[in-house]
Amino acid sequence: MAETLELILAEREELTPYVTRFVLRSPTGATLPGYSAGAHLTLTTPSGEKRSYSLVEAGEQQPTEYTVCVRREDQGRGGSLSMHRHARIGDTLTVSGPHNSFGLEPARRYLLIAGGIGVTPIRSMANELRRNEDAIVDVVYLSRSRDDTAFAEEFEQSGAVVHHSAVQGRFDLWPLLAEPDEDTRVYCCGPQPLIDDLLALTMHWRPSRVHVEDFAGVDALGGRQVPFQAVWEPTGEQITVPAGRSLLHTLRDHGIRVPSSCESGTCGSCRIRLISGEADHRDLVLTEDERSRYMMPCVSRAAGPEVSVAPDGFEDPPH
Ligand code: FES
After folding, report:
1. Does ligand 1 lie within 6 Å of residue 268's CB atom?
2. pLDDT, tens digit, for every residue of 45-68?
3. Residue 265: CB within 6 Å of ligand 1?
4. Is 285 in the pocket of ligand 1 (CB under 6 A)?
5. Whole-angstrom Cα distance, residue 70 to residue 12?
6. Most exposed residue of 63, 75, 160, 180, measured as fewest CB within 10 angstroms of its CB?
7. What is the position in ligand 1's atom list of the atom closest to the CA of 299?
8. Distance (Å, rounded) from C-alpha 307 to C-alpha 292?
9. H or E segment and range at residue 129
10. CA distances from 292 to 208, 249, 275, 289, 296 (A)
11. Cα(113)–Cα(103) distance, rounded to whole angstroms?
């Protein structure tokens, strides 16, 4: 399980009117746990909410700092606003990670596609891949306008396609994806409509060649929130999970210990068994196969009125 660290906010810089860069260091100057491109941290924001942010620099074995970029979401529920408004240089922030569920796999050619603030892991990947002279790397960076484009100049100078939809209209990805290529891996991070588009346009690709991450990460209180019943299978206890409270925290409210780390559906540490009922899976961890038998209670809820759950490792009762 990844460590929890208390780090000092050492630098902050406005990259655009919406995007601010935050640099975190150890209070003692010690090196930090290493990470590879595509990894993210889970930060506890000054308002106490947990949010996952991708690391924007190339991977390092022994980094002395972590850099994340946060887009201010005025209509969000406060995590990014809290970072923008209340995180001050010198503050101590609690960080868990780094975790990586979006790592680079070996390939000869990479097509990296970023939408908006989804550029953060893509920048880390592009910079990491530049260390490998044999890799062919093509980057497409889509945003609404130049004002909304962190690192615009850097990407333009590196030869990436940088496209602003408010000025140039919708970018057509099809010419880049029409011919599936076994030696190419596609990585895309951005808002859900971009990911949906990409997945639709790569239906004819081998699934293992296409990697996506929703930059918004997963949010324990996001999505539709309705109450549901959970039955804790080992004891038969009936538990009501209210709207606005995660299954993980509701189980804990009832004295049931479930380990956790990121609490944002990305690290895998809170996995429990799904014994019956249908889950509304909101994590980025479980495979399709695993989803009928497990769920991640930090973010996922019941799809119907009730689920029956148990600790990881619990066996189905004999029928
Ligand atoms: S605590 Fe990390 S996936 Fe649930």
Report:
1. yes
2. 998 888 889 999 999 999 999 999
3. yes
4. yes
5. 10
6. 75
7. 4
8. 12
9. helix 119-129
10. 21, 22, 9, 7, 12
11. 14
C-alpha distances in Å from residue 319, one per residue of 260, 291, 306, 315, 316: 31, 21, 20, 12, 9
pTM assigned to the model: 0.72
Q: What is the pLDDT of residue 315?
A: 78
Pairing state between β 161-164 and 136-143 = parallel
Please report the domains of the chain, with CATH numbers, ordered by start residue. 4-99 (2.40.30.10), 109-214 (3.40.50.80), 228-311 (3.10.20.30)
3-state DSSP assignment of residue 225? coil
Instruction: Collect all residues with Cβ–Cβ distance below 8 Å to 23 and sequence separation of at least 6.
Output: 9, 10, 11, 12, 65, 66, 67
Nearest CA to ligand 1 atom 3: 265
pLDDT tens for 242-265 read 877 889 989 998 999 998 877 777
Q: How far apart are CA 216 and CA 6, in angstroms?
A: 23
Q: Quote helix, strand, coil % in the chain, to nearest 5.
A: 20, 35, 50
Indicate if ligand 1 lies below 6 Å from the C-beta of 246. no
Q: What percent of the chain has pLDDT over 90?
A: 62
Closest CA to 200 of 189, 215, 191, 210: 210
Q: Which of 16-25, 42-51, 263-272 has the lowest mean pLDDT?
A: 263-272
Structure tokens at 40: 């993210």
pLDDT of 222 above 90: no
